[in-house]
């Protein structure tokens, strides 16, 4: 993968071109080498904006926030956002929790979902 953007890196900090099948065979690749780095997602968001896709850019920026929290916490957010899985209060608390962890875009999304779920009767 020559010519790869040097800003593209795994969560571990390893450049993406260093994550190869040979590195896996040698036991040099960790789980964090397979996770995407938030800065890589931001780079992709900028490219999406440049190509006229602001919705994709917004999704990538939310993903960049979530890349900073554990997989278990991402699943907790996902489960809470399923219809009838959480109360309005639980969704508000989840939004506050996301805000505290530096995920303001995701917190706003959860608040928006809470408002829609309340209006449509989709809270628990």
Sheet-strand content, in percent, reads under 5%
- Shape call: elongated
Structural class, judged by helices and strands?
mainly alpha
Rg, Å, rounded? 17 Å
> Level of helix content?
55-70%
Q: Tally the helices.
A: 6
Residue-averaged pLDDT, rounded?
92
Low-confidence segments, ≥5 residues, pLDDT <50? none
Distance between the termini: 49 Å
**Total number of β-strand segments?**
0
**N-to-C order of helices and strands:** HHHHHH
- Mind describing the biggest β-sheet? none
Observed structural traits:
mainly alpha; 124 residues; elongated; 58% helix; single chain
Question: How does the SSE layout of this entry go?
Answer:
Blueprint: H1 21-25, H2 38-50, H3 54-66, H4 71-81, H5 88-100, H6 104-120
Notes on the structure:
The chain has 124 residues and is mostly helical. The protein contains 6 helices and no strands. Helix 2 runs antiparallel to helix 3. It is elongated, with a radius of gyration of 17 Å. The protein starts with 20 loop residues before the first helix and ends with a helix. The model has no long low-confidence stretch (mean pLDDT 92).
Short description:
58% of the residues lie in helices and 0% in strands.
């Amino acid at each position: 993968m020559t010519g790869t953007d040097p800003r593209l890196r795994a969560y571990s900090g390893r450049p993406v071109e260093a994550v190869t099948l040979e590195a896996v065979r040698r036991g040099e690749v960790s789980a964090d080498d397979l996770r995407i780095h938030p800065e890589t997602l931001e780079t992709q968001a900028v490219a999406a904006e440049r190509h006229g896709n602001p919705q994709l850019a917004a999704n990538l920026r939310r993903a960049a926030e979530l890349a900073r929290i554990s997989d278990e916490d991402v699943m907790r957010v996902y489960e809470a956002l399923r219809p009838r899985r959480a109360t309005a209060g639980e969704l508000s608390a989840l939004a506050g929790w996301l805000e505290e962890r530096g995920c303001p875009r995701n917190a706003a999304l959860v608040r928006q979902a809470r408002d829609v779920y309340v209006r449509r009767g989709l809270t628990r």
